[in-house]
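re: ur question from earlier - yeah i can do the single chain one, its not a big deal. heres the input i used so u can compare w yours
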Amino acid sequence: MDRNLLLAKSNLEKNEFKVKIFESIDEMKKDLLNEIEINKTIAFGGSMTLFDMGLYEDFKKRGNKIFWHWKAKDKDKELELAKNSQIYISSTNALTLDGKLVNIDGVGNRVSSMFYGHERVYIIAGRNKICKDYDEAIERVKNVAAPKNACRLDINTPCKFTGKCNNCNSPDRICRVEVIIHKNPTGGDIRIYLIDEELGY
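and the output i got, formated as tokens:
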């Protein structure tokens, strides 16, 4: 198992997060489906990690009521409904070895939901999201996650063409809100699931 996963887990726990490590996606999905009750409403944050592993389909097939703007015809309505869900599931742009979550968002719905408004939050991340420190995390977000998401969304930002952050003033800029979660917020219940695989951007 990747040693960085073990070190990140230890420091995330020191920062009062609940953490589990899994060797595979299938192992993680089995645990998550067991953890989240069938009567709970669930909202998903925009995440290629979640999209690629098919979690939305798993919970929908089981019978949970799920909100995800990526799957909705009326995205604005879905985002509004998602605010009142009991469970929130997302990934993170980066997490540091000293146990912090680092995220940059365009709208802010994903990052705000990670720490406020839900009974329980699950953050799922592959080993590729682990960074040495804040500086490396920001480097990863701006020069890996952002350009790839700009290409996926087919928006007109410089990073889509250069593959790196230009600190642009484009109307399509997707790096608008930065959030660092240093410790599990008071009264919060953030559970972090680390997987020993390369997942998402």
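The helical segments are 3-14, 25-35, 48-53, 55-62, 75-82, 109-113, 134-153, 158-162. not sure if urs matches, ping me
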